[in-house]
């Protein structure tokens, strides 16, 4: 058997073992991920509030489904598509963590010379890439959402804090869903449990998808009513 095939087989065995362990005690596995994802989400929402207060509102009218464009399933699907890209990026962090922390070191043991050095150095490089990519994702989301919040608050003549409150019913579950894979990666990296990350990718994605569907429907069909209640001009 080739070294790469051996690593893949070992990875599948580790994944099945982790899934069986988590299935026996699901709260013990999901609880820390949920807490971590919630902490990241609250931090992001706080950053959005700060950035929205520092941003200059755009004079261009902001189009929102249910307010000045139709609230439809097409809008829900468009939102799900955008969120799926973010979820894919964060899920890739788990896969990259498995490759960097488990698969590559296993393969390195079976190589010699410069090729072994490549495998040994590739792991830390992959982890560094994950850190940079996820940091970029968080900063980009905070800036884009903060700028949008500033514009929406100005157009609907409500305070930034009130706008954040109207966002919470859909934004919090949406962000928690998106950050579950990232939280799993952070917990595994702290424990050195790189072998669990393929299983974590599957588990967190399976949990995140229905949460994103619910959050998208809340944003398209419920949030406009909350905005109308909060705004004196709608």
Give the gist of this structure:
This protein has 234 residues and is mainly alpha-helical.
Spell out the blueprint of helices and strands.
Elements: H1 3-24, H2 26-54, H3 73-108, H4 113-155, H5 160-191, H6 197-221, H7 223-230
Helix pairs in contact: 1-2, 1-3, 1-6, 2-4, 2-5, 3-4, 3-5, 3-6, 4-5, 5-6, 5-7
| Average pLDDT rating | 82
Main sheet attributes: strand count, strand direction, barrel closure: none
Low-pLDDT segments: 1-9
Tell me what portion of residues adopts beta-strand conformation: under 5%
What would you note in describing this structure?
By secondary structure, the chain is mainly α. Helices cover 83% and strands 0% of the residues. It has 7 helices and no strands. The chain has helices at 3-24, 26-54, 73-108, 113-155, 160-191, 197-221, 223-230. α1 (3-24) packs across α2, α3 packs parallel to α5 (160-191) and α5 (160-191) crosses α7 (223-230). It is elongated, with a radius of gyration of 21 Å. 34% of the residues are buried. Residues 1-9 have low confidence and may be disordered.
